[in-house]
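Bug #2210: token dump truncated for Threonine--tRNA ligase?
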Amino acid sequence: MANINITFPDGSVKQFESGVTPLQIAESLSPQLARDILAASVNDKEWDITRPVNEDASIRLFKWDDPEGKHAFWHSSAHLLAEALQDLFPGVKFGIGPAIENGFYYDIDPGENTITSADFPRIEKRMLELAQQKNPIVRADISKADALKLFGDRGEEYKCELISELEDGHITTYTQGSFTDLCRGPHIATTAPIKAVKVTSLAGAYWRGDEKRNQLVRVYGITFPKKKMLDEYLVLLEEAKKRDHRKLGKEMELFAFSQNVGAGLPLWLPKGTALRDRLEQFLRKIQKQYGYQQVITPHIGNKNLYVTSGHYAKYGKDSFQPIHTPEEGEEYLLKPMNCPHHCEIFRALPRSYRDLPLRLAEFGTVYRYEQSGELHGLTRVRGFTQDDAHIYCAPDQIKGEFLKVMDIIFFIFKALKFENFEAQISLRDPNNKEKYIGSDENWHLAEQAIIDACEEKGLKARKEYGEAAFYGPKLDFMVKDALGRKWQLGTIQVDYNLPERFQLEYTGSDNQKHRPVMIHRAPFGSMERFVAVLLEHTAGRFPLWLAPEQAVVLPISEKFNDYARKVADQLNALDIRTQIDDRNEKIGKKIRDNELKRIPYMLIVGEKEAENDEISVRKQGEGDKGSMKIATFAAELAREVNEMINQQ
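Reproduced locally. Full output below:
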């Protein structure tokens, strides 16, 4: 057989016989690597490790620690779950079963069966029994007609619907044991590496996300190559339950929901409103230093505004129905995006190159109709406030503006202790330029500005070709929280599209009309989602400068309530947010109750403290800090706050 050249990530090249598999390549490098490999990519395409490579190619080999390795492992585990469900619940029909960030799910139509959480142990047991059979997971190409017959004969109506939309010649199945599934792959080589299984939850899911279609049962699960990994994950899962922002938000009296108001429309309680206001003021102060100007736009807009911007085509199905006015044919929409309104502000006045960059900022509330099954606390809502800003600049100003936005994002992450994050530069596909608008020159300028800005900041950002928006490249920040979960919290996008759609212009130094470039940026993303992430990241123990209440005074008996009020009044006068717990309860219960509220400082006062004009200080998580004068405590707290929000 002819030899082919295989190029490895370090640039080295080795020759192998045509038809070699990634697994065989791994075996030639190291027996341990061959045992650990789970997935591969060939010429940047996902590839089964048992699938032949027949031409010169670049190759990457993935283990468990690689996201691609976990994805293949969990994708195969979804098939294993389906095989177990097929055995245990005859007559079930299958929808889709993808890998997700943590584990996998499978959507099933249970038919006459009823599946509850009580069935989880036997599903797990059956999955492990099947995994221990070490069945190979075999890929096969299949014609469209044969696929329709195979799944049609089994009564798999959902699979047949998917097959009917596929192009003949590009359809594959995967089989392990007695189970065959329609799937593009890739998968691990056999079920053998799956050593630990946990079915985690059930949920309802409409077929293909359409509320008018059948509601299926979504079975969630997670698997690992070692039992110890599952045990560690379950500990994290319990910690995540304790940190659930919905639970903490209720305990800390931050927000609430009301069916009378409507699903997915949060009500911010006084303490939550104060928290949001401090976050807004924090960002407003930073933005003022960077030359942003605040604007305010309406909560609704004429439908034609969003047709012009393209948002109606993109978000029309996810928007609330148009609002009709008494005027014939006149329609308004609840605002799904702030960008079109800001473009109209730019157009409201003649603009010169001397006005650029023009930085417009708004905490603007927008509305999108999320399906009821997708709503989740503050992370998926129907009305949310974005910390939106749009920068209108000349092409040669993009890099400088990017650097400034990055400075803002880094400052926020540091102040809020989001210290573990990754960055991704999303670039256009150089082999498929027709997907994008704008000239090659402008794209090169925009992409190079982002790359140069990252290099100048020393930010290691991975490049992903083909991930750019159609209107321009972008830089996304994914933050890891205290439990290792990833959240996208910051984004900077370059947009040539909206200035073109709205015919935005400025007069250049050459006295000619020019089109500005638009930079979108939102360090928080949305106030709702950001507060949810921050709650779970900190377990409700906010940084001192942000805490809804910084201190609570606890008199040990009613005799000292007057002194407690004096202490609270003095601290509040010094802008230290302080309340009193003067309930007729024992001091031990007051301490325990206020620990649950995550108030950073508890100030205990009794006879000794009243006589000496002092307070006995307890710090959340650290315990007793001793007695001190009120003024001394106030000075220490002010110093602590100042260090937190002004650190560089």
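Output looks complete on our side. Residues 527 and 544 are 19 Å apart (CA to CA). Marking as cannot-reproduce; reopen if the truncation happens again.
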